[in-house]
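Supplementary notes (optional reading)

For those who missed the lab, this is the record we used. Protein: SRCR domain-containing protein. Length: 322 residues.
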Amino acid sequence: MFLLSKRDKAFVNVRLVGGHSRCAGRVEVLHRGQWGTVCGDGWDLADAAVVCRELDCGEPVDALSDAHFGQGSGPIWINYIECSGSESTLKMCRSRGWGKHDCDHSKDAGVICSGVRLVGGSRCSGRLEILHNQTWMSVCDAAFDQQDAEVVCRELDCGAPVQVLGAAAFGKGDTQMWTQEIQCRGNESQIHLCTTSPSHQNNCSHDNDVGLVCADHVNVRLVGGHSRCAGRVEVLHRGQWGTVCDDGWDMTDAAVVCRELDCGEPVDALGDAHFGSGSGPIWMSYVFCTGSESTLKNCGSSGWGKRGCDHTKDVGVICSGE
């Protein structure tokens, strides 16, 4: 079992417990000297993003509930938390009040953060750095190949790898060097799940930092309409497309989708599977966007992947674009 601490500093307000690394686990919050948990009601990726950033753990991969990492003990400090995603600490997010809940530990919230990042380019391109033992490390180009790139691009919610670049194509890092050989099969969900072995390249330096270009990430699409700017809303999460439930779906939510797809303004926000029923997971329900989000996945919801809906209520959007 891993306990997440941030370089053992006294001001740590959050930790992840029971996961496979220090960047995955049950969310626990320190309040008035006592560690407690967070209720999974309303827990979503915007909330998870704050935890990952607070712990210097990269981007959120998943926001989990129903005690995915086991049940905690002690107080349940926060319920129905609402983060915008920009807060510096989880304790700054809105909630129903500290210690106020109708929840139990069977609903404890969890987070999986990426543990990889691309630096010096864009969100989906740059010098590769891997989090290891609380330290970000650059990767030697001799220790990384196309199958490894498949995993990193998937983990960062980007498209397929376009190019693996050696010789510090995105500049030289100033971190320690990761010199072990990474041996991914290519279908892993995270780089930390790949096996490693000692590398024969013992003289690797920042001149050999590996860089990666992934295709631009597409998190949302419209299916079944008359153009790419009208149809059933589908969201990509952890490599799988799923739908959105129409409970609470409105024009503000539709505006985020239209802007994300460069499709102009929203003309209509539709429910009841107007563009036909989808398949696969229903990723989001009771979506509440402020309208300023860059992607639908950053909007609040009743919880990521929560049940309580079926595909007869899949949402759709008509935008003013094409």
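If you only remember one thing from this example: Confidence is low (pLDDT under 50) at residues 1-10.
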